Description:
Shape of chain A: globular
CATH topology of the largest domain in chain A: Dipeptide-binding Protein, domain 3
Number of strands of chain B: 0
Strand content of chain A: 15-25%
CATH architecture of the largest domain in chain A: Roll
Oligomer: heterodimer
Number of strands of chain A: 24
Low-confidence stretches of chain B: none
Number of domains of chain A: 3
Amino acid sequence: xxxxxxxxxxxxxxxxxxxxxxxxxxxxxxxxxxxxxxxxxxxxxxxxxxxxxxxxxxxxxxxxxxxxxxxxxxxxxxxxxxxxxxxxxxxxxxxxxxxxxxxxxxxxxxxxxxxxxxxxxxxxxxxxxxxxxxxxxxxxxxxxxxxxxxxxxxxxxxxxxxxxxxxxxxxxxxxxxxxxxxxxxxxxxxxxxxxxxxxxxxxxxxxxxxxxxxxxxxxxxxxxxxxxxxxxxxxxxxxxxxxxxxxxxxxxxxxxxxxxxxxxxxxxxxxxxxxxxxxxxxxxxxxxxxxxxxxxxxxxxxxxxxxxxxxxxxxxxxxxxxxxxxxxxxxxxxxxxxxxxxxxxxxxxxxxxxxxxxxxxxxxxxxxxxxxxxxxxxxxxxxxxxxxxxxxxxxxxxxxxxxxxxxxxxxxxxxxxxxxxxxxxxxxxxxxxxxxxxxxxxxxxxxxxxxxxxxxxxxxxxxxxxxxxxxxxxxxxxxxxxxxxxxxxxxxxxxxxxxxxxxxxxxxxxxxxxxxxxxxxxxxxx
Amino acid sequence: xxxxxxxxxxxxxxxxxxxxxxxxxxxxxxxxxxxxxxxxxxxxxxxxxxxxxxxxxxxxxxxxxxxxxxxxxxxxxxxxxxxxxxxxxxxxxxxxxxxxxxxxxxxxxxxxxxxxxxxxxxxxxxxxxxxxxxxxxxxxxxxxxxxxxxxxxxxxxxxxxxxxxxxxxxxxxxxxxxxxxxxxxxxxxxxxxxxxxxxxxxxxxxxxxxxxxxxxxxxxxxxxxxxxxxxxxxxxxxxxxxxxxxxxxxxxxxxxxxxxxxxxxxxxxxxxxxxxxxxxxxxxxxxxxxxxxxxxxxxxxxxxxxxxxxxxxx
Lengths: 526, 314
């Protein structure tokens, strides 16, 4: 009964025009949901208690959306909260609390029409004021929110009647509705223009019964949930099981019904277990080695190119990901993205080319240090060692510096000149590039500043023509790949283990783990 | 006696104070603070700044420490910096879990190791003695998680016991004992060797002394010699070793907690250190320190009581 399914989510099978109009096409999609006509499994059934074990979860987790940083709190939040928009399993954007949206011609002013009649678990109705307060929580000087850079573009928000919110942006952004699907931005009840970040109240599919951070959360189905064809489980228990062996044991022995983060070293053993299905999705999650392009020797693009030719991507996918992933092409846009540049030639391991670029840089040999820790991504240190082995053939000495896991993001990433990095990825090209490649962006970890790239980025953001937009994003991918400071060896799959009792729609969302964090409301017991 | 206890308690309070200073200092020395750790990869300078302002972390360290100390002196452990939960609530459940597991393991391990040790002393150098030694020493020599995985492999995958010790608040005792059997057994295997060996060594040591020879000469049987004549005099070292192992069962079982997904204090402490949640770390450290101080005190009192020469001093 063991089978493996792979879902390569296609982000954005949606035209520009439909995105701007929102309502007509997507409103309908929201009702049908991802359980449309193409469901191979039996029709979803109501009932049962879904026990989900996750490889994250910490005692210091909280209800505060400013601090959500791991998959446990993200899945938990998505189960109890409603968001303005939702990324459907096929990667398209559908309305959730925002029934429809309309942009001005320059994509600077967005008018969101809210779904009426939606209530929080506490009984209070969802209002335009709540939407504004929920977004405002992440803005302003006193915001400690991790989502602050995400909502930075908003300059003004006002309620236009009870069910309409008008948002004005600093500059046109055609992808703004995608931003509103971010997991940090649930709509929460407000009073006096402020939300209570310690509150568990939301308008999502499940009502929180109990929550002990880092241990367990229990939830009951929200009897008044407005979506049809969703929220099939009567109750949900979410466990934090950080140890991979314990997690897999729990699944095999029937203590839980589903787990995330299957250990790639032992996934073949898990597949042997009866009544277990391994589900993988490959979306935007990718691993990188980011160089500080301001620091010698990485300030010379020839050196960067030499390093990009000096690693064997296939080998990394094979050995580090155990085959659960795809090779990267030194830019962060994956095959599942809308404007992925398929025509861009795939870079391969080529020691001769690496030497050629070294010579162009005026060097015979090169010695650099690569900082890595498993905090960056599982297997980062091993990946760095493999890199070092392959680079040696091209006359490049890569000294692998094993950094402590503790404090990796504050002390190593963006501090050391070359380090291993994890990216969950972003649903749109603009969002990804703006987050980590635009000049001056807070998380531009290569400190890259490329005039043409930055100009294209601003232009593409408010461009209306689909073909022109595609051309621009493809050029930007080529620029990052050929001149950027980042080595992107691989896109890693999300690998989950399910008991055969659990059924899911044929297409599973690839934008995040566990069906885009929404397994709890999308899956059911067969 | 009472004077000794009072003296030791006063020293204990001083120890706790010094430990709190040490722990606070150590966390200050760790790179990064709670704002950076919680925001992680998403941190930007402004948000870290705002986070610190909100938690009052922009104030100097000694003022923060004095604030905390003032609260503790009045019995208020404060709030978790990470999620604002009162620490007393946060710790109460965890402490109960930890004590339950420690007690469960101790109830199995202490009688077991005493019995094994006494029997090993009685039949020393026999096949039985060797087998017990090899078995207990091997189980202490393997890392705890390995022992745990072996037990899971044999006892959980067959469905006999659950592989994760999921204790729900409303569960009855029998269910709880069943669910936590594997972690308790793991801990038993880990601590048995130490206590067993000490019991065996202390008794064997005494068996060579003249008064035992005297007893043997007047025809006392071997069991009676060990239980009646040797054991009372061997109690002091055994009690000390038991106290140390009990303290270990309370403070040192984080690996077992992780493998069996058991929400105890160890996991809480590790999580809080990794996020630099200093108030929670302080509280957990104080509890651990208390466990050591009190168990050692109890051990000293008991070993004094076991020695009539110390009790009836002239």
